[in-house]
Structures are given as structure tokens and as C-alpha cells.
Amino acid sequence: MESLQNLTNELRAKKEAALLGGGSTKINAQHDRGLLTARERIEMLADSGTFLELGMLNTSDVSGAEGKSYGDGLLAGIGKVNGRPAVIQAGDKTVFAGTEGNVHIRKSKSIHEFAVKNGLPIFSLHEGGGLRMPDGMGSDGISDKLFPREMLTLHRQVPTMTAILGDSFGGPTWTAVSSDFVTQLQGTCMAIAGPRMLELANGQKLSPEELGGVDIHHKFTGQIDDDGATEEECIEQLKTFFTYLPQHAGARPNYRKTHDDPYRLVEEVLTILPQQKNRVYDMKRIIESLVDEGLMFEYQRKFAKGIITVFAHLNGHVVGIVANQPNQFAGAPGPQECQKATEFICLCDSYHIPLIFLHDTPGFRISSEAERAKMPTKIMVWNQALALSTVPKISVVIRKSIGAAYGNMCGPGMGADLVVAWPTAEINFTGPEVGVNVVFGRELARAENPSEERKKLLELWSFDSSPYKAAAKHLIDDVIQPNETRKFLCQSLEFLLTSKREKSERLLAAWPTGI
Question: What is the pLDDT at residue 85?
Fold first, then answer.
């Protein structure tokens, strides 16, 4: 018994040392930077007392580093988040700056495989400096440390969520851009390599935020979906996103009980939509009026603002909403909006989330900049995602839906189960003003009273753009009263989410993140 007690004491001492990672001095340095440690981040994410750590006694396999490298720069295990089991990993900046050594990489691979095998979502709380030297040096060092196949072939089998909570390069960046949802702490950098490496490679001198700060990703790359001023805010965003996702690809998102009447009339939409057709408004107000309790979670809220992508509930069912935003570029999608919509469609279809489309767009933004950004390709990739998606899809034309954008917003023939319009809808190949100028330009130039003639032509073309002709020929399914839109959507979902349609065929699950 004494021997067993001695062995137990030795184990306890090792685990107490492991709790300090790289040591108290480095923990204090992390706090001095205003940042939490990996353990503190896990405690903030996981439900109290639920985290079961795996690999706690791991150390670097470099001789002499054992006593100062517990965890080898990565903490990992299983815990509960909002009462649901999940795999959690966190980069430990106190051990070799969170860089990836041999044991670190082996642990990450193992925990990833464990998550997929058991249908557990993966949370990553990351900060770190990429592949560690000397572990990755030489042909033998790098040959077994290239991109892990388990990450490349995940195919959205389980939801993956990442928070970038400190400067991150290499591995943490690869994990983030491969995830279903990414948030980044303001003031941090996420990039391939750090500013010092950049300067050595090509002489470019940039601050971390200029290289890969949140503003860069919101304005240019779309590689993050949100950001937070504090680590707590970022971690809360992960938790909120998770409430809309299923446990794994074989399950549907949880139904949420609601006391919000599914047949509630939404009279307020009549005051949100301006009387003048050329006036802008905030589409988010329309969405809030339609969804349960007015609650929604916006995906990529600061990127590609001409289109809105949100998660919400309708009669307790999780839905994904794609909507044009008239107060940004008049609701006209550009290249970034195409990318955003495509990624969202892939995400929703992979996790059995029905899609709702709300139209108010004058057509696509056309410019030399858009052409240089491969606008035609991005339009067609969006269409391909629509064509391959098999979740229920419902389309509502609220105001304008012009040209090819009518199709990309899931108009007739684009895979929608139901397409309806408000009586305010204008549907056409082009807007009346443009159409009149193109077709009747010469006649107007010769007219005695061009202004009066233009007015008559605009009235004629406006009539032709109304939804009633399409409804009469059953090219759309109905024209509905605006105040009955919530009732229509909730009723439709009740009929569409049958046993045959409650899960998608997941044809988009293998499409890469970051289309």
C-alpha cells in the first residue's frame, strides 16, 4: 500500500505540474498581455466540471524539454457545451509559444479522429505560431507534418467551430479556415505566417493587424464569420452558433419549443417597407418580424453586406435565411456576396437546415472590379450550390427581383419548393428605367415631350413587372399578403419537413469551406 501511495503521490505531482503548462512565469506573461490561458479558455467554454482532459501528461519528445512542455502546446479533451458533448482543443501559448511539435500534432490528429468516430462537434480555441523548429526541419521532419488528411476529408461530418484568441499562424489558421464557424478576437492576427517571416521573405513591413486583423478579413477575405472585443464574447459566439447546428451530420438540428404563434400576423412589415419604390430600408427588420421571438444569429455579419445570411427559428425549426439588404448597394450582390451566399447554402444543406430566400435586388453589381474578381464564375458557383442543395427551400419576392439575381435568389426553376411574391414585387429581366432607355431610347429622343412619353412607358413596364402575370401562368405559386408571410412560411415548413425531406442528401458536404 505504501508503494501504491508513493506512486499516487508521484502522479499527483506530475499532474499538478502539468496544470502549469510552460510554468507560472509564462502564465503571468500571458495575463500581462491581457489574454487568458488555454485552460481558462476551456473553463469558459465547457459546462462546469464536465471537461475530461486527454493527453495531460504529454510532453515534447525533444530530449531535455520534458519538464517545461506539458501538453506540448495543445490541451485537448471531451466536455459538454450547453449540455451537449463535444471535443475541445486549445492552443497553449505558454509551451513553446503554442507551436506544433511531434506530440502536439499526434494529439490533434487523435482527438479529431475521436470526434468524427463518435459524432462529436469540435471546438478549437486557438493561438499559436505554426510548425515548431526543429521538429519540422529536414526532409524527415517535414514529410510527416503536411496537411492532415482527417482535416481535408472531414466533409462536414461534425460541426467545427474555431475562435482565434491570439496571433495565429500555420496550423491554427488552417484549422480556422476549414471550420464551419470562425470568430477572431479584435487586435489579433490570423495569417499563413507572421510579420517577421513576411519581412524576411520579401521585405514587406506590416503590423499584425494590417496583415491578418479582423478588419482585413471582414473587408477582403471573408475568412472569419464574426469578431469579439473580448475572449468571453468570442466564446459566447461559438456557443450561440452551436445552438443552431446538429450534433453530427446524421442528426437534425434540435427543435426549440416556442410560444410565438406560428400563424401570427406581421402587420409591422407594412410600415417597414417604404411607400416609395426607390427608398431603402433595413431588411433585418423584416426578418426580425418573421422569426420566432424576433431572435436571429447573423453569419458573416460584417462581410459582403449587400446580402444577409442568418440562422433563426420558425415555429421551433432552425432555418437559414438568405436575404438581399437594400440599404447596402441597393441589395445588389457583388463577388463577395456571391461567395457568402454559396458558403451559407453549403453549410445549411450539409446540416439539414431549410433555406428561406427573401428577394429585394435590382440585379448583380456589374463593374470592371467585379469582372476581375471572376463575377460570372461566382454567380454560377452560387447557382451550382442551389442546384445541388436538397433541403426544403422557400422563396419570397418582397420588392424587386431583377435579371439573373432572380435566379440566384432561388427563383422559379432554381430548386425552390415554393416561390411566392408580395403584391409589391417587381420581377423582370431588367428594371423599368434601364429597359425603357435601352428599348425606346431613340423614340424618346425624337418625342415631342420625352418626359411625358417616358412616364407612360414606365407605367407600362411597371405593370409588366408585377407578379400577377407569373402567378396567372403558374410560374410562381402565389401572391401572398405581406402580413401573412410568417404564417405562410411556418405552414410550408410543416408540410415540407416530412420524413422524406427532414434530412438533406448532403451533396454539398464535400464542397470546400471558403468557396
Answer: 98
DSSP assignment string, 96-139:
GGG-B-HHHHHHHHHHHHHHHHHT--EEEEEEE-SBPTTTT-HH
Orientation angle between helical segments 38-45 and 231-243, nearest 10 degrees = 40
d(CA 190, CA 97): 15
pLDDT tens, 178-214?
A: 999 999 999 999 998 888 888 777 888 888 899 999 9
Q: Rounded distance, CA 201 to CA 394, Å? A: 50
Separation of first and last alpha carbons in the chain: 61
Query: For residues 497 and 230, what is the distance between their CA atoms, to the nearest angstrom?
Result: 39
Contact between residue 258 and residue 235 where contact means Cβ atoms under 8 Å apart: no
**Residue count of the chain:** 515
Distances, alpha carbon 18 to alpha carbons 24, 94, 105, 126, in Å: 11, 11, 18, 19
Angstrom distance (rounded) from CA 365 to CA 398: 19
Which residue in this structure is represented by grid cell 433541403?
391
Whether the per-residue pLDDT at 434 is higher than 70: the answer is: no
Per-residue confidence band for 460, with pLDDT thresholds at 50, 70 and 90: confident
Three cell numbers at 212?
A: 491578418
The H-assigned helical ranges of 351-412 are 368-372, 375-388, 404-408
Global pTM value: 0.92
Q: Are 131 and 96 in contact (CB under 8 A)?
A: no
